[in-house]
Amino acid sequence: MRFKVKTILGGVFHEKDWFNCFVRAAGGIAAVPANATIYEYTATLNAAQVVDGGGSTSTATGSAIVTLDDSLYTVTTDVTWQNLSGPTDRAHLHFAPIGVSRSDADPNTWFFHEVIDNPTTACFATNNCAPSSGTAHDVLQLSVNDGYGVGIALGLFNNPLADPTTLPNSFADLINVLNLGDIYVDMHTELYPLGEIRGQLGVAAVPEPSTWALIILGFAGVGFMAYRRRNKDAMLRVA
Ligand SMILES: [Cu+2]
Fold it and tell me: Could you give the residue ranges of the DSSP H alpha helices within 118-208?
């Protein structure tokens, strides 16, 4: 069956758009151009995952969602955090597998991206760091040949003696290394300059077929209730 509905703008709404809308409603994933794939990764940030600086005993927590669009070559990061020991001056995307120190995995910082807007420790003096609880939204624009150093970082981790300039570095490599679980988000504070909380990014859970069935049943149920309500109203009006 092929759905075609005229929109207000005169465009044609294809079944792919219906699917996008449905996915959007069900999982909060943005509608995307027909030929784009959105890759979504999530992390829970806490002190237990911190390796650098001798670890962390902070009670702060946070969460991150990182999405990559393979047609726009964007990396969008949304981070939420609570109860840091003080204001935060930096939050980063780093390269290191879970449980591994960044200074071991990527000693020359080939892969690095700043996620919040106050990227210098100078903010402590001027009191304009990001707050101890807050949110950040960041969009990094890359290109097809730009994996932000991740191919290089991955190669260095596999073979520390490799010549970094000979290693691949593409957007596809970045997706690859995220799929491997080798990128994390961390947040820095004055008390924990090497990281107060850290969260290893993993592939976001996609609803199972059985979950989809429940979602569809749920939608059908809402529709049926609305239909019943309408009928009842009509009957009341008649009465
Ligand atoms: Cu960092």
Answer: 123-126, 150-158, 171-179
- The values of phi and psi at residue 24, to 5°, are -60, -45
Distance between Cα 9 and ligand 1 center (Å): 46
pTM: 0.72
Place of tokens 């840091």: 84
CA 173 to ligand 1 center in whole angstroms: 21
CA 71 to ligand 1 center in whole angstroms: 28
Place of tokens 């730009």: 146
Cα 144 to averaged position of ligand 1 atoms, centre (Å): 25
Which residues are CB-contacts of 28 (< 8 A; sequence separation ≥ 6)?
Answer: none
In sequence order, the β-bridge partners of residue 199 are 185
pLDDT value for 167 = 78
Walking along the chain (239 residues) 10 residues at a time, the average pLDDT comes out as 34 40 46 81 98 97 98 98 96 95 87 80 82 96 92 74 77 93 96 97 80 62 60 51
